[in-house]
Amino acid sequence: MAVDFTPAPEVAELAERTARFVRDTVIGVEETHDGVVPSEDVRRELQAGARAAGVFAPHASPEFGGHGLDMCGRAPVFEEAGYSLLGPLALNIAAPDEGNVHMLEQIATEEQKARYLAPLAAGDIRSCFAMTEPAPGAGSDPDALATTATRVDGGWRIDGRKWFITGADGAAFSIVMARTTGVPGDRGGATMFLVDAGNPGMTVGRHIPTLDESLYGGHLEVEFSDCRVGDDAVLGEVDQGYRYAQVRLGPARLTHCMRWLGIARRAQDIAVARASEREVFGSRLADLGMAQAMVADNEIDIHAARGLILRACWELDQGRNGGLEVSVAKTFTAEAVWRVVDRSLQLCGSLGVSGDVLLGRFLREVRPFRIYDGPSETHRWSIARRVVGRAGKAGR
């Protein structure tokens, strides 16, 4: 089967409009606030600008006010949005809301879509996804899930501690992963629940200090203690939470890659502009061999990452699992983006270290991506396991 990654004309046009909006509107706000949105007012102003530019919610279906792009269609648009740290928030495609919109469209009931998905896709509210727990609970190993949901009269009681829950500060609701059968370490037995903010059994705790600061709503600890929800709070089917999580996690890993690839391009552009104007040792920095090698290596990493992202997106668009391709793309892109930003800072020298350009902020923001959505080591283990298993099947 022939595979053509050339975007459809309407997708290319949307990507171009996104690029103009980011450069003309978003970057100025980003530079004013050092890449960190300071308030709800700024978030809403950015999103109003995206609506006016016709680039809001490219991932959501037209029914919910979006453009209904498939995964391959999202790649160039998300990359252009990611050219600024605040571009994804402006388009309402930042984590965790983007992944939650995708999952709710796939598995929520009509009533749940009306109550949660419609306002989330419109940017009227925000959300969070509460899965990660303090050690020894769920992290890289989701089977370690320790939070429990127990049947009670009229519904369920959720008990447990979550941490590193992105966007929890100000989220209108949380999608909570809790164990409904088995014990920590068992495979399966998890269920997703929709828990409204203000539920007396849910306490949003402290902001965890982190290298990155641009993800709106922070990374927080969340406590569930005798948290009561009705049967209508179950998202999907009971005990099928891990299966539904894959509906979210695979695409979310790729959309993270798309967004961070935009920042890699931005860093490369800053470095190339600096190298083209900076004169050292009697010539432009851009004419020196070692600087040229870094520029070339940056470009190689950017092109290779884009190709791997599109390949994995194509697998998902074909309705396939794409687990191997997603892990390959996520691992390579997370490390390639770090290399690009690091080389770009090096090329800019003292300017790169200074706060006069945002390369230092970019470096802090992209470093955790080698841990978020599965550490590189976990993905390498998964890749190796799949490859070895495939070789074993071929040998029989």
UniProtKB/TrEMBL annotation:
InterPro entries: Acyl-CoA_dehydrogenase, Acyl-CoA_DH_CS, Acyl-CoA_Oxase/DH_mid-dom, Acyl-CoA_Oxase/DH_mid-dom_sf, AcylCo_DH-like_C, AcylCo_DH/oxidase_C, AcylCoA_DH/ox_N, AcylCoA_DH/ox_N_sf. Its cofactor is FAD. PROSITE patterns: ACYL_COA_DH_2. Residues 239-387 form the Acyl-CoA dehydrogenase/oxidase C-terminal domain. Keywords: FAD, Flavoprotein, Oxidoreductase. Residues 128-210 form the Acyl-CoA oxidase/dehydrogenase middle domain. Residues 10-124 form the Acyl-CoA dehydrogenase/oxidase N-terminal domain. The keyword Thylakoid does not apply. One of its GO terms (biological process) is fatty acid beta-oxidation using acyl-CoA dehydrogenase. GO terms for cellular component: cytoplasm. GO terms for molecular function: acyl-CoA dehydrogenase activity; flavin adenine dinucleotide binding. SUPFAM superfamilies: Acyl-CoA dehydrogenase C-terminal domain-like (SSF47203), Acyl-CoA dehydrogenase NM domain-like (SSF56645). Pfam families: Acyl-CoA_dh_1 (PF00441), Acyl-CoA_dh_M (PF02770), Acyl-CoA_dh_N (PF02771). The keyword Cell inner membrane does not apply. Belongs to the acyl-CoA dehydrogenase family. Homodimer. This is Acyl-CoA dehydrogenase. The lineage of its organism: Bacteria, Bacillati, Actinomycetota, Actinomycetes, Pseudonocardiales.
